Amino acid sequence: MKRVSLFLLVLLICIKLFAVSEQQRLVDYLDDNNYSNYEVIVTEDSLIYAQIKKKDTATYLVLSSDNLEVHGYEGKTKVALFFDSLANILEVKIVKSRDTRSFVKRLKSSNFLEQFVNWKGKGEIVSKTGVTFTSDSVTQTVKNLIPYINRISKIINQQD
For the chain, what is the mean pLDDT? Predict the structure, then answer.
């Protein structure tokens, strides 16, 4: 019985440490990209997101975490996903990628990321020729984030 209790205590501490580091990553991203009017929110079930306020509207942001990211050509690609209170995707940005820098740059400068605006995880996203592994990695990562933004949207709308 004591071993189970100790295990659960250690597990709880690890979850809290993970949440704190994810929270700090989000704050660092917002600060590094000059967002000033924001609030980082951690829900009861440990979902971490930011609310960015601009005039009378709010945009929400989640960063992909390691467990949701998909391996591209040389590694995982971290994305920032901006959405509204109805879980409509407004923008997707590549935050960090281990794939070849010139390929990632080509992907960012194409219209590939624009395909995600209002995407609900169904329908085709066309991969960028020559950057297929990275494109597919980003697509799958965004698809993995959709259930999270849907849950966050429900929480946001329950508060209104």
Answer: 82
How does 62-98 read in b/e, with b if 16+ C-beta sit within 10 Å? bbbbeebbbebbeebbbbbbbbbbebebeebbbbebb
pLDDT computed for residue 3 by the predictor: 65
Count of helices and strands (H, E) across the chain:
3, 5
Nearest Cα neighbor of 85 from 59, 61, 67, 66 is 59
96 or 18, greater pLDDT: 96
- What's the DSSP call for residue 86? T
By the 10 Å C-beta count (0-12 exposed, 13-18 middle, 19+ buried), 19 is classed as middle
Gap between the Cα atoms of 121 and 123, Å rounded: 7
Distance, in Å, from the CA atom of 159 to the CA atom of 83, rounded to the nearest integer, reads: 17
**Does 75 score more than 50 pLDDT?**
yes
Average pLDDT over residues 74-84: 88
- Local structure of 55: helix, strand or coil: coil
* Complete DSSP assignment for 88-129: -EEEEEEEEESS-HHHHHHHHHSSGGGGGTT--S-S--PPPT
Pull the structure tokens for residue 147: 């259930």
